[in-house]
Structures are given as C-alpha cells and as structure tokens.
Amino acid sequence: MANGKEDKAKGAANKAAGKVKEAAGKATGSGKTEAKGKAQQAKGGIQKGVGEAKENQKKKR
Q1: Cα distance between residue 51 and residue 43, in whole Å
Q2: What DSSP designation does 11 have?
Q3: pTM to 2 decimals?
Q4: Rounded CA gap, 51 and 9, in Å?
Q5: E-assigned strands of the chain?
Q6: How many CB atoms within 10 Å of residue 52?
Q7: CA–CA distance, 18 with 57 (Å, rounded to integer)
C-alpha cells in the first residue's frame, strides 16, 4: 500500500498525463482520446486526494 506522498505524486503524474492526452485528443479531433485524458485527470485528482487524506491522518496520530 502506497503512503500519502506516493499517492500524491502518482496523482499529480496522472493529472499531467491526462492533460497531455486530452490536448492530443483535441488537436487530432479524437473525442475518445480526449475523454480518456479527462478520465485520467479525474483519477489523478482522486489519487492526490487520497494521498492528502493519508498524510492528514498520519499527522493526527
């Protein structure tokens, strides 16, 4: 199981990759690629939030 910092880093990476994928989809007119990019960004946001929650929980201990 990943710790908070790892989750936050993976989340940021997924958000960045998703933005690139979304932009590529827009540039090529591929709605499917654009949608995949948006989904990857959402996944990254969730991962980042999980990482932040883990770190906050650890601080409370």
Answers
A1: 12
A2: H
A3: 0.88
A4: 8
A5: none
A6: 14
A7: 28
